[in-house]
Write a sequence for this structure.
C-alpha cells in the first residue's frame, strides 16, 4: 500500500548558533535507517509508527522513550525501545503527529509533523547524539520512507484533502477507479477488482462491514463528507479480511479535534450544465436509447460541527447532508415519459473518548434514508409529454450504529473490539394497480399500457456484527489473532402488480415448443405470477491468526491463516447451506535487497472465500411460488399488439398450457447439494518497487488469479427426469424444474420426496452425467505504476495495466445480460447454455492506462486531473441453441429438453446455428475518460473558503458501454435471420456534466 504525504519545507528552529556537529546530527536524524525496523500487522481502522533508534556512533539504543502527540486532538502515547533499539506504536488514529525521541543524558530528536494514514506503516528512525550537552533538535517536517518493507498489500490510500483537490466524484467506486487493477463495470454501479465480478468485493467503515446487504454490489450509501481516508486494497490482502474474492475498500470517518470547527458546503450540478447526447436508433428507425427531453439536476449540501467535549479527552463530529436529485426521460418505445425525484437527508455522528492514554472508545452512527417518486406520463416524440398515468412512491436506505474499543494492555499487547449493526430497507408503493405488459412480437419487448410499477417489493435487511482482535509484539514476531461474527437477517416480500386474475407479468411473444408441458411452438400471451417471501438468515463466523516475522534484517515473512464457516437458512428456519472449515492461507515474502528501504522485491499467495449472498436466500429459500400460464392471443390492435382490458391485462383466448416452476414449498434438502463446497479463488503475485527520488516511486507487479470453485443454481430437471425414469420413481409433486445449488464439475446429491410416500429419494448425479464444465475464471496481469511528486508542485498517480480475464463464468453476476442477481444468473442453469461458453469474460480489459494528479498553480489555485483510457469489453453473439448439436444431442442427458431454447437468444451461437464462443465477436471501442477540476483556496473573514469547479467527461465522449448482443431474430414463420440490431448501443458513457462546490469553514 502507498500513501503520499509530503511537505515542501524542512526548517530547523533554534535559539543558538548551530555548529557543524549539530548540522551533522540533524542530517543524521532525518536519514532513513540503514538497518531494519520491526514489522507489524496492519490495522483496519488506524495506522502505526515503527523504527529503530541508534546513536551517532551506530549503537542501537534501548530504553529510549518515543512519544507521539496528536496535533489536533492533543492526546499522547509513549513507548520505550527494546534491547535492539526497536519500537512500535500501534493503533494510532489517522492524522498529524509530533514525535519526540528522548533518553536521559542525550539530546532529544523532535519531528514536528508526521502523517499517520489508514492501514499504513510509517518508519521513523531517529539518531541520538552520544554526548548529553546538545540541546533539542526540532524538525518541522521530513520526507518519510516511501517503501514499506514490512508489507506488500497492493493498493492506494487517499485522504479527503487530496480527493477534494481532484475531479473525483463522491463514492467509493470513484476512488477505487484511481487504483491499478480496478476496472469500471459496464453494467453495475460497482467495480471489478482483478477480474472478479462487481459483487465480490468488501467494503468497511470504522471496522464495520458496510457492503450492500442483499447483493454485495458496492456499499451502502454514505454521507461522503464524513469520510476522512479511503484505502483501496487490490491484492496480497492479509488474513484479517475475508468474505470477498475481488478486493477491499476500507475507510475511516472524520473525528472532532481540540478546536471547535463548523462550516458548510453547497454543491450544484445544474441542468444548465448538462450536455445532452443524441438518441441511438436501430437500423429500422426504432429507438434503442431515447435521449430526447432527457435531463437531470443534482443539489447537495453539507453542514458540520465538531470539537472537544473534554479537551484532549473526548471529541464529537456531527454532519447533516441533505441531497436532491431529479431526472426525466422518455422510454425507448417513445410511449412513456418519467419524472424521477430522490430526496435524502443523511446524517452522521462520531464520538471519540480517550479514556486514558491507552484506552479509547469510538461510537459512530449514520442514517441514509431516502424517499423516491416516479411520475409517469404518456409521451410521443412530436407532442412531448401527455396525460399523467400514475405515481409510484418508494422508500430506501437505513442506518448504521457501531462502537469500537481499543486498549493497549502493555507496550507489547493490545486488543480491539467492534460491535455494530447495519440496516437497509426498501419499499415500493404504486398509485395504480395495473400489471406490467410487454410486446416482444411487434415492439421488440417494449412495454404497452399505462402501468407504472410491475413488481411490488418490501424488504428489510439487518446485519449484526462483532469482532475482537488481539496483537502481541514479540522480539522478531508480531502475532495478530482475531475472531469475528456476522448475522444478516432478511425479511422479504415480493409480488406482481394487478388485481385478481389480472395480477402478474404479461408477455406477448413467440415461443419454441415445450413438449414437457405440452406447449406447441407458436405465439402466445404468457402470464407469470411469482410470489416470494419469508424471513431467512446468512450467518458467518471466522477466526484468524497472522504472524509478521522479521526473519533477517532484509527479509520479512507475513504468514496468516483464516478459518471460517458460512451458513444460510430458509424461511422454515432450517439450514440449507452450511460451508464449514474453510481454510484460507495468506503469505507475503518481502526482501529489501539493499537494506536501506529504498526498494523491495515481494511475492504473495493467498486464498479467498466468497459466502452465498443473501440474494440466494430470497431466490432459492423463501418459499417462492412461480406459475406460468400460456394463452392464445385475444383481440389485437391495429399495430398487432394485444388490446388491453380495463384492469390493464391483455385480452386473451383459451388457456393452452400451465407450467409450475416452483410450487412454494421449501425443502431444504433439495435447495442445495448435500456435498456443496464454498466458492473460492487463489491469487499469486510477484512484484518490485523502488524509490525514484525523494518523493517518487515506481513499481511493477505480476498477478495471477484462479477461481477454483463456484456455486451456481442449476435446473437439474432434465437429468432428474431421466433419473426418475431409470429408478422407476413417479413424480407426483407437479414440479419439473429443480433448481439446486451445486458446484459445477462436481457430483450432486440431494433428497426429495417425489412420489409423496413420506420417504425421501436420494438422488445421486455424477459429474460425468451432468457434463457441466468446470467454472474456470482466470486473470493474468502486469501492473506498472508511478506515484508521488515529480516536482514540488505536481503530485501524480499513474499506472498502465495489461490484463487478460478468461474462462467459463464472470462470477456472481452477469454483465452481458445485465443480471444483478448474485448466484442466480442464467450461467449453468443448463449444460447446453454453457456450450462454447469458454472465452474472454465481460470484465476483460486488455489495456488500461490511468493518469491522475494535482498541480499547484500557486498557493491559491489547484488544478486536478483524472484520465483513463480503457480498451473495450469483449462482445458476444447470442442465439437460440440449435437442436441436435453439442449438449442438445444424444447421448447427453440434457438433449431431450434442450432447455436453453426456452431462454430464446441466450446461447453462444450465431444466428445461423454456427458456434460463436464467448467473447469472440470483437470488442467495444476504447473508453476515454477525462475529468478536470480547478480549485481556489483563500481566507475570508477568519475562515477558509474553497471554490471548486469540476467538469466530468470534459470532451463529452459517448462511447457505448453496452450493446445489443442478440445475433438472431425469429421470423413469423419460425425461421431464423440475422438480427439487424446486433451491435447497436444500449448504454452510453455518461454525458458531460459540470459541478460547482462552494465550501466555507471556521
Amino acid at each position: 500500500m502507498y500513501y503520499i504525504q509530503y511537505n515542501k519545507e524542512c526548517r530547523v528552529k533554534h535559539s543558538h548558533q548551530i555548529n557543524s556537529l549539530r548540522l551533522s546530527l540533524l542530517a543524521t536524524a532525518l536519514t532513513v535507517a540503514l538497518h531494519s525496523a520491526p514489522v507489524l500487522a496492519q490495522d483496519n481502522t488506524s495506522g502505526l509508527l515503527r523504527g529503530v533508534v541508534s546513536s551517532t556512533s551506530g549503537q542501537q539504543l534501548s530504553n529510549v522513550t518515543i512519544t507521539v502527540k496528536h496535533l489536533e486532538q492533543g492526546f499522547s502515547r509513549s513507548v520505550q525501545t527494546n534491547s535492539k533499539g526497536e519500537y512500535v506504536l500501534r493503533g494510532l488514529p489517522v492524522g498529524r503527529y509530533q514525535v519526540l525521541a528522548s533518553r536521559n543524558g542525550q539530546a532529544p530528536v523532535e519531528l514536528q509533523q508526521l502523517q499517520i494514514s489508514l492501514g499504513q506503516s510509517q518508519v521513523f528512525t531517529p539518531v541520538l547524539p552520544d554526548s548529553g550537552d546538545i540541546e533539542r533538535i526540532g524538525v518541522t517536517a521530513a520526507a518519510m520512507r516511501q517503501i514499506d518493507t514490512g508489507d506488500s498489500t497492493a493498493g492506494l490510500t487517499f485522504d479527503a484533502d487530496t480527493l477534494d483537490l481532484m475531479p473525483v466524484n463522491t463514492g467509493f467506486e470513484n476512488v477505487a477507479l484511481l487504483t491499478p487493477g480496478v476496472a469500471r463495470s459496464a453494467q453495475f454501479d460497482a467495480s471489478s477488482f482483478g477480474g472478479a465480478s462487481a459483487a465480490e468485493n468488501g467494503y468497511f467503515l470504522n471496522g464495520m462491514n458496510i457492503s450492500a446487504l442483499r447483493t454485495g454490489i458496492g456499499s451502502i450509501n454514505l454521507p461522503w463528507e464524513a469520510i476522512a481516508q479511503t484505502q483501496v486494497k487490490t491484492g496480497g490482502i492479509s488474513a484479517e479480511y475475508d468474505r470477498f474474492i475481488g478486493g477491499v475498500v476500507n475507510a475511516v470517518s472524520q473525528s472532532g479535534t481540540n478546536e471547535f470547527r463548523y462550516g458548510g458546503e453547497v454543491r450544484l450540478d445544474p441542468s444548465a450544465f448538462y450536455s445532452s447526447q443524441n438518441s441511438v436508433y436501430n437500423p429500422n428507425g426504432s429507438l434503442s436509447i431515447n435521449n430526447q427531453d432527457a435531463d437531470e439536476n443534482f443539489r447537495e449540501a453539507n453542514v458540520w460541527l465538531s470539537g472537544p467535549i473534554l479537551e484532549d479527552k473526548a471529541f464529537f463530529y456531527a454532519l447533516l447532508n441533505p441531497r436532491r436529485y431529479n431526472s426525466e426521460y422518455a422510454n425507448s418505445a417513445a410511449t412513456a415519459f418519467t419524472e424521477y425525484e430522490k430526496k435524502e437527508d443523511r446524517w452522521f455522528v462520531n464520538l471519540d473518548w480517550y479514556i486514558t492514554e491507552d484506552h479509547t472508545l469510538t461510537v459512530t452512527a449514520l442514517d441514509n434514508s431516502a424517499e423516491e417518486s416516479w411520475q409517469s406520463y404518456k409521451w410521443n416524440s412530436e407532442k412531448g409529454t401527455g396525460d399523467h398515468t400514475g405515481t409510484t412512491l418508494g422508500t430506501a436506505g437505513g442506518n448504521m450504529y457501531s462502537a469500537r474499543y481499543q486498549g493497549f494492555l502493555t507496550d507489547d499487547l493490545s486488543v480491539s473490539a467492534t460491535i455494530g449493526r447495519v440496516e437497509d430497507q426498501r419499499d415500493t408503493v404504486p398509485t395504480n394497480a395495473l400489471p406490467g405488459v410487454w410486446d416482444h412480437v411487434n415492439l421488440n419487448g417494449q412495454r404497452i399500457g399505462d402501468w407504472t410499477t410491475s413488481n411490488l417489493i418490501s424488504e428489510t435487511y439487518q446485519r449484526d456484527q462483532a469482532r475482537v482482535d488481539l496483537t502481541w509484539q514479540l522480539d522478531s514476531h508480531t502475532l495478530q489473532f482475531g475472531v469475528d461474527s456476522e448475522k444478516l437477517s432478511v425479511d422479504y416480500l415480493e409480488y406482481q402488480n394487478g388485481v385478481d386474475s389480472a395480477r402478474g407479468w404479461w408477455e406477448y411473444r413467440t415461443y419454441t415448443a415445450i413438449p414437457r408441458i405440452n406447449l406447441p411452438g407458436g405465439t402466445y400471451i404468457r402470464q407469470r405470477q411469482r410470489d416470494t417471501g419469508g424471513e431467512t438468515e446468512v450467518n458467518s463466523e471466522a477466526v484468524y491468526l497472522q504472524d509478521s516475522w522479521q526473519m533477517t534484517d532484509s527479509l520479512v515473512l507475513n504468514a496468516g491463516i483464516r478459518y471460517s464457516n458460512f451458513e444460510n437458512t430458509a424461511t422454515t428456519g432450517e439450514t440449507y447451506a452450511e460451508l464449514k472449515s474453510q481454510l484460507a492461507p495468506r503469505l507475503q515474502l518481502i526482501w529489501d535487497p539493499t537494506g536501506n528501504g529504498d526498494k523491495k522485491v515481494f511475492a504473495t499467495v493467498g486464498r479467498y472465500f466468497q459466502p452465498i449472498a443473501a440474494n440466494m436466500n430470497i431466490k432459492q429459500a423463501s418459499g417462492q411460488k412461480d406459475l406460468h400460464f400460456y394463452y392464445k392471443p385475444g383481440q389485437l390492435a391495429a399495430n398487432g399488439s394485444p388490446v388491453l382490458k380495463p384492469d390493464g391485462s391483455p385480452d386473451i383466448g383459451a388457456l393452452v398450457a400451465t407450467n409450475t416452476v416452483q410450487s412454494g414449498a421449501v425443502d431444504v434438502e433439495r435447495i442445495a447439494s448435500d456435498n456443496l463446497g464454498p466458492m473460492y479463488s487463489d491469487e499469486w503475485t510477484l512484484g518490485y518497487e523502488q524509490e525514484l527520488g525523494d518523493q517518487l516511486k515506481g513499481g511493477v507487479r505480476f498477478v495471477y488469479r484462479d477461481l477454483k470453485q463456484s456455486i451456481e443454481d442449476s435446473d437439474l430437471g432434465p437429468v432428474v427426469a431421466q433419473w426418475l425414469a431409470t429408478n422407476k420413481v413417479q413424480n407426483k409433486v407437479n414440479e419439473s424444474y429443480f433448481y439446486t445449488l451445486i458446484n459445477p464439475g462436481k457430483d450432486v446429491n440431494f433428497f426429495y420426496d417425489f412420489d409423496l410416500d413420506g420417504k425421501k429419494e436420494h438422488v445421486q448425479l455424477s459429474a460425468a452425467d451432468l457434463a457441466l464444465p468446470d467454472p474456470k475464471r482466470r486473470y493474468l496481469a502486469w501492473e506498472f505504476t508511478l506515484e508521488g511528486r515529480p516536482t514540488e508542485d505536481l503530485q501524480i498517480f499513474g499506472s498502465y495495466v495489461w490484463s487478460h480475464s478468461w474462462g467459463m463464468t464472470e462470477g456472481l453476476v452477469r454483465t452481458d445480460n445485465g443480471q444483478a442477481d448474485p448466484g442466480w444468473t442464467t450461467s449453468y442453469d443448463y449444460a447446453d447454455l454453457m456450450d462454447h461458453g469458454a472465452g474472454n469474460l465481460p470484465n476483460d480489459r486488455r489495456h488500461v492506462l490511468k493518469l491522475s494528479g494535482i498541480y499547484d498553480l500557486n498557493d491559491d489555485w489547484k488544478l486536478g486531473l483524472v484520465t483513463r483510457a480503457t480498451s473495450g469489453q469483449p462482445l458476444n453473439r447470442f442465439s437460440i441453441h440449435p437442436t441436435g448439436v453439442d449438449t442438445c444431442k444424444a447421448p447427453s442427458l440434457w438433449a431431450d429438453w434442450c432447455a436453453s431454447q426456452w431462454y430464446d437468444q441466450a446461447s453462444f451461437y450465431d444466428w445461423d446455428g454456427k458456434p460463436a464462443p464467448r467473447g469472440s465477436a470483437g470488442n467495444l471501442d476504447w473508453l476515454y475518460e477525462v475529468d478536470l477540476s480547478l480549485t481556489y483556496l483563500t481566507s475570508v473573514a477568519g475562515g477558509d473558503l474553497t471554490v471548486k469547479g469540476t467538469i466530468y467527461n470534459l470532451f463529452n465522449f459517448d462511447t457505448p458501454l453496452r450493446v445489443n448482443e442478440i445475433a438472431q431474430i425469429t421470423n413469423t414463420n419460425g425461421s431464423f435471420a440475422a438480427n439487424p440490431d446486433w451491435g447497436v448501443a444500449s448504454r452510453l458513457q455518461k454525458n458531460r456534466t459540470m459541478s460547482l462546490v462552494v465550501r466555507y469553514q471556521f
Q: What stands out?
A: Residues 12-145 form a domain with the Immunoglobulin-like fold (CATH 2.60.40.10). The radius of gyration is 31 Å.
